[in-house]
Specification:
The complex is a heterodimer. Chain A has strands spanning 4-7, 10-13, 19-25, 31-37, 43-51, 54-57, 64-66, 76-78, 87-94, 102-104, 108-112. By secondary structure, chain A is mainly β. Chain B has strands at residues 4-7, 10-14, 19-25, 32-38, 45-51, 56-59, 62-67, 72-77, 86-92, 103-104, 108-113. Classes of the chains: A mainly beta, B mainly beta.
Chain lengths: 113, 114
């Protein structure tokens, strides 16, 4: 799991501002995922991508956008349309079948100023 | 849609006792079930996983059991130690098909009292 790097570790957003969270992996994994974690709650899927230039909405995609221009990178933008963005954001990646194991980055804590 | 229910939400045990966490999944096509341990402020770490063609898997003090008929799987930790204290998440994944997304349970906060 050391092959997935998220930055920054802490991020602050002002009202009406878009912010982008970075996720880079050097594991040569095809699939990448973004999860949101609220205090005391589980992991909810925001977006995922199984191959370059393709991505699908998860369960809570509203107010977020992603891109997958390179295999190694899957940035997440939290737009001003996301009214409650304060949360811990986790990026993860997985190789194709049969290696199903999901590896997580170290997370980004996003807070609203 | 797909759903994974996890119980209990909190669990407190004495050091040396066993702990059991249970999960139920809704998608009968799910065929891979991992368990993750997350310490405060850290990333989730995979501790054990099981595929649907296996009923039980053990790794030292940790074991997972799967009942496909009931769509139910459990994590068993024996001889608990204070360092086992963390939040544990179960998850379910359908490895084949158009979508390969891992659905997580809501987590169990395990506290091991010395």
């Amino acid at each position: 799991d050391g092959g997935i790097t998220q930055s920054p570790k802490y991020l602050f957003r002002k009202e009406g501002q878009n912010v982008t969270l970075s996720c880079e992996q050097n594991l040569n994994h095809d699939a990448m995922y973004w999860y949101r974690q609220d205090p005391g709650q589980g992991l909810r899927l925001i977006y995922y991508s199984q191959i370059v230039n393709d991505f699908q909405k998860g369960d809570i995609a509203e107010g977020y956008s992603v891109s997958r221009e390179k295999k190694e990178s899957f940035p997440l933008t939290v737009t001003s349309a996301q009214k409650n963005p304060t949360a811990f954001y986790l990026c993860a990646s997985r190789a194709r079948v049969p290696n199903e194991k999901l590896f997580f980055g170290s997370g980004t804590q996003l807070s609203v100023l | 849609g797909e759903n994974v229910e996890q119980h209990p939400s909190t669990l407190s045990v004495q050091e040396g006792d066993s702990a059991v966490i249970k999960c139920t999944y809704s998608d009968s096509a799910s065929n891979y079930f991992p368990w993750y341990k997350q310490e405060l402020g850290k990333r989730p770490q995979l501790i054990i996983d099981i595929r649907s063609n296996v009923g039980e898997k053990k790794d030292q003090r940790i074991a997972v059991t799967l009942n496909k008929t009931a769509k139910h799987f459990s994590l068993h930790i024996t001889e608990t130690q204070p360092e086992d204290s963390a939040v544990y998440f179960c998850a379910a994944l359908r490895l084949r098909g158009a979508t390969n997304k891992l659905i997580f349970g809501t987590g169990t906060l395990l506290a091991v009292q010395p």
